[in-house]
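Hello,

Following up on my earlier ticket. Below are the two sequence lines again, exactly as submitted.
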Amino acid sequence: MTWGAEHWVGLGVLAVATFALRLLGPWLAARVGGGARAESTDALLAGLAVAVLAGLVVTQALFDGREAAGWARPLGVVVAGVLVWRRAPFLAVVLAAAATTALLRLLGLP
Amino acid sequence: MRSLNRTPGLANRIRSVDRELLRDVLLVCAADGVVGLSFGAVAVASGAPLWLPVLLSVVVFAGASQFVFVALVTGGSSPLVAALTGTVLNARMVPLGMGVADVVPRSGWRRLLAAHLLTDESAAFTLPRRDPGERRSAFWLTGVLLFVLWNLGVMVGAGLGGTVLASVDPADLGLDAAFPAVLLALLVPALRTRADRRTAVAGAAVAVAAVPVLPVGLPAVAAVLGVLAGRSGARTGRRGEGS
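Thanks for your patience. The regenerated structure is below:
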């Protein structure tokens, strides 16, 4: 590929926009936080991260973009879920998920 | 650890970091490093100049958006379209940043640095901790280690891009299952109240429902609507549970 001026613009836009999004969260939080209702605001802010991480878990587990991710990956995450529920150590949860998925793929499951 | 402890500023920062956290964070960052290897190798193999994946990883530092940017640009798309597609993927940084805003210094260069180190991983490791010092430690430790290992991985991967490494797929190692597993393992201990659990379940449901109708990257942002479910339950369910 040939790298031109418009590519520098694209790279700059992605970098600056991503950094701006990263600064925007703490900036917004400072504007809704504090005051007499600080405690309920803290709970609300923590709830935002809880909701987004939960959304990431399921979308990453089930989808590749808009396509279904197949079987191997969701089953690996299900194994992780069972281990989390049984209060297994973090290391075991993560390694078991990866191993399950890798093994299922080795066996030919998509 | 030992060499870090000799630096007073850092020693202060990681004072309350326990060995278990360090081990868990290292595991996740190592997995990210392998994905970085693959990103660097695939980018170069698909025709990007050697420095592009390396520069992107330093200034953007958000894996999925880097993959998308390089794939679209090397595929002949307009760079601006590639940048906007990548930016949409990073929209989740806003609610995540609101959730861990307490660990971000109020002003100065440390605020800018902390913002740049905000990732799914650094937010997820911060979330289950309640003590302000522990939260700060977890955030900075994850952010710094991830930045170092991710960029190291990308650099090595780009350098070896023409070789066999370009054909190694992180999916063969099951790493695509490891990342949701990481987030799940960190999220569940953070669900202390019934309102938290309601928020998580509703957020997950909204995200899945949004996949067919929203551009890629936004379903996880739409999950913030799950907070409404948590709040509506808060009036009835929260009183008896402390916290």
